[in-house]
Structures are given as C-alpha cells and as structure tokens.
Amino acid sequence: MSKYYVLHKPYGYMSQFSPLENKETLADLLDIEKSCYPVGRLDEKSEGLLILTNDKSLTESLLNPENKHPRTYLVQVEGQITKKAIRTLSEGVKISLPNGDYTTLPAKVKKIGKPKLQERRPPVRTDVQSSWIKITLIEGKNRQIRRMTAKVGFPTLRLVRSHIVDLELGQIPAGDFRIFSKAEMYKKLGQST
Fold it and tell me: Which CATH number fits domain 70-164: 3.90.25.10, 3.30.70.1560, 3.40.50.300, 3.20.20.70?
C-alpha cells in the first residue's frame, strides 16, 4: 500500500536515512516504513517541505525534469536585495556546477516581507542586514538557489521550501510530519490517479 508523508525538514539534517558520519539524518527524526524514501533533496542547511513516499510512479514523475513541477522557496539573503538582482534571478543566471557552467531557466522571483516562520536552530546571523525573496523554480540543480543568490551578490542566509506545486508546508512544526492520502497528495501535486 502506498504511503505519503510531508515532513518539515529542520536545518542541520541530511535528506537520507542511511547513517553519515557525525551527521543527523532523517532516521534521527522519523520512524516510518523502510520502503519510504525522500523525493528529491534539501541540503543539510536547507529547511522545509520534503515528501517521503514508497509510490515509485509519483517519485519518477516529480523527479523527471520534463514535467517542470514548480517548487517555491522562501529565501533570506544577506543585504537589501535590489530590483536589478531580482530581474537577473528571474531571467536566468549563469552558475557553476560540479560538471560545468549552467544558465538557470527563468524563475518567478519577488521581494517579500519577513515570512511567519519558526525560528531556526541555530538562529540565523543577526549581525548583518538581510531581506527576503520568494522564488519559484521548475528545475532543481545542486544547491541552485544558493549559487544563484551568491552570483548576484546576495548570499543565502536561510532557505525554506514552502511549496511543491499546490502542496504546502503550512504550519507543520520543524521535525514533524503529516500523513496524506493518495487522493490528497495527487490532487495537490496535479497528478492523475
């Protein structure tokens, strides 16, 4: 039987169950079916919405770049981000990836006020000025948002995935999860059952 979990992955955890030397993993947070795995990843320093499931067809659909599922992130950057930087991020940025340079696809980017989020543990640096943007991507390269904001001169301080398509993190506390039915999950993700 297919299982569907939405986890609020906290800062400092790896998006995997297998042990990793001196690192906290999903196994330190969750005791769920061994057949369930995360769909995609959030790096150790990123927080927010992470789907875990044993539904292979859903996993394949969400991970297939041709399907262009939008993913939305709330991003705190160092400094007061400029209109020019937002325009550049929206149009596409040339970033360096482990396998070479890559120009990102157009994204939806806008400056926002400080969102209502739980405080991060450990807290974000308070000795620097910062601002927030909301960015929606239809791709997911390695540390893409961090590379993008650094490229335009506004390094990422905090990164929280809030949505995948219409599936929302909402008020799930950090480290906690919510169970979804197949019908709920597929509807939120725009999948046909």
Answer: 3.30.70.1560
Can you point out the beta strands (E) in the chain?
4-9, 13-14, 24-25, 37-38, 47-53, 71-78, 94-97, 100-103, 108-112, 130-137, 156-164, 167-168, 177-180
Q: Which one from 31, 43, 101, 176 is the annotated catalytic residue?
A: 43
From 81, 79, 86, 55, select the one nearest 185 (Cα to Cα). 55
Helix (H, G, I), strand (E, B), or coil: what is residue 14? strand
189: amino acid identity, one letter: L
- pLDDT tens-digit series, residues 80-131: 999 999 999 999 999 999 999 999 999 999 999 999 999 999 999 888 999 9
Is residue 43 part of the annotated active site? The answer reads yes
User: Over the stretch 25-57, which tens digit does the pLDDT of each residue have?
Assistant: 999 999 998 899 999 999 999 999 999 999 999
CA distance 101 to 6: 33
Closest CA to 165 of 179, 149, 184, 146: 184
Q: What is the pTM of this model?
A: 0.96
The amino acid occupying position 154 is F
